[in-house]
Specification:
The chain is mainly α. It contains 16 helices and no strands.
Length: 342
């Protein structure tokens, strides 16, 4: 009898609550995920606009509206550009910043401050500064892509390697110029190195919105082609996709989005990695028709909600970009270790 009891099959153990919750989240339909994220985005936006609204409402409410508009635009640009970049590179831990856009932005600001003075850079017309930064960053990426994709190699991996090297070169040259500057000039310049939503020029929002809308419309029309690109170069070529041309156009679109976002508020390196990683976890399908809105909505909730917490709870004790970089750096290390242990 004891032997029979020992060999009898035991009932399966009940799954832990965390495991059941994770399974339900992963099995949620994309329609439900998008609906929940839309509701969450609307809630945090309305809460940010109207919570503790007092004093001169005609002044405070437009100021909050400008910040919300800037955060929503950045959520679109960073989320879409990172998702597209990971699609064409077939790598979940890469972001467009690996091509050196953030380093080029810092170099542009440093070179202008070194030659003209930091005070002149800060006092320059925002439209002029925005245009110079966007043109230089997009021109840099266009020349780099054209050089890499018209040569004999045409290697995407070589392109990424060149981007890493150029990023190190830009940072090194920026560091050299910063050491040669006066300390007072460097203090003024240092504020430009971190993303800030508190000093966004309203005149730039309309221009940025038009550029972003045009790029995103083109991306949405090509969403099925992006699904094919995600399957790999050989599959895309076999089904008739011009892989070289399509990848180059996608990379140029990424460059334009990153350039607009960086020129508008400053560099946000790891934010795209955060929202895209969460998007893949929440979306059980790999269709870009669902991934694109999910990633954008996650970014909107994270930016607006994070800024709301920093303002109302911590009283501007730190910058949102610092929290993003810290959290994104931890996630980046986790993804690297997770990949190395498999």
């Amino acid at each position: 009898m004891p032997d029979a009891l020992a060999t009898a099959p035991r009932p399966p153990k009940a799954a832990a609550p965390a495991t059941r919750l994770r399974g339900r989240v992963r099995n949620a339909s994309p329609h439900l995920v998008v609906g929940i994220l839309l509701a969450a985005t609307a809630a945090v936006v309305l809460f940010f606009l109207f919570f503790d609204l007092k004093g001169n409402v005609d002044y405070v409410l437009p100021r909050r509206g400008i910040k919300v508009a800037a955060m929503l635009l950045v959520a679109v640009t960073v989320g879409v550009s990172t998702l597209l970049f990971q699609t064409v590179t077939a790598n979940r831990i890469l972001t467009p910043s690996i091509m050196g856009f953030d380093s080029l932005y810092i170099l542009i600001q440093t070179a202008l401050a070194f030659t003209l003075g930091a005070a002149a850079v800060v006092a320059a017309p925002p439209a002029l500064q925005f245009g110079v930064e966007v043109v230089l960053m997009v021109a840099f990426s266009a020349l780099l892509y054209r050089w890499m994709f018209t040569g004999a190699t045409r290697s995407l991996h070589l392109l990424l390697l060149v981007g890493v090297i150029l990023s190190s070169l830009f940072r090194g040259f920026s560091s050299l110029l910063q050491r040669l500057m006066e300390p007072s000039e460097f203090i003024i310049l240092q504020d430009l190195f971190f993303a800030s939503f508190n000093n966004v020029d309203p005149s730039l929002l309309a221009v940025s919105a038009v550029i972003i809308a045009v790029v995103c419309a083109a991306v949405w029309r090509a969403r099925r082609t992006l699904d094919v690109l995600a399957l790999g170069r050989e599959v895309a070529i076999n089904v008739g996709v011009d892989h070289r041309k399509t990848v180059m156009l996608v990379l140029l679109g990424c460059s334009l989005l990153v350039a607009v976002s960086t020129a508008l508020v400053g560099p946000v390196t790891f934010f795209g990695l955060l929202v895209v990683s969460l998007g893949y976890q929440l979306c059980r399908t790999f269709s870009h028709a669902w991934l694109l809105p999910i990633v954008v909505l996650i970014g909107a909730v994270a930016l607006v909600g994070g800024q709301l917490v920093l303002e109302q709870v911590f009283g501007f004790a730190t910058a949102l970009s610092v929290v993003i970089e810290f959290t994104g750096g931890i996630l980046f290390l986790y993804l690297l270790l997770k990949g190395s242990l498999k």
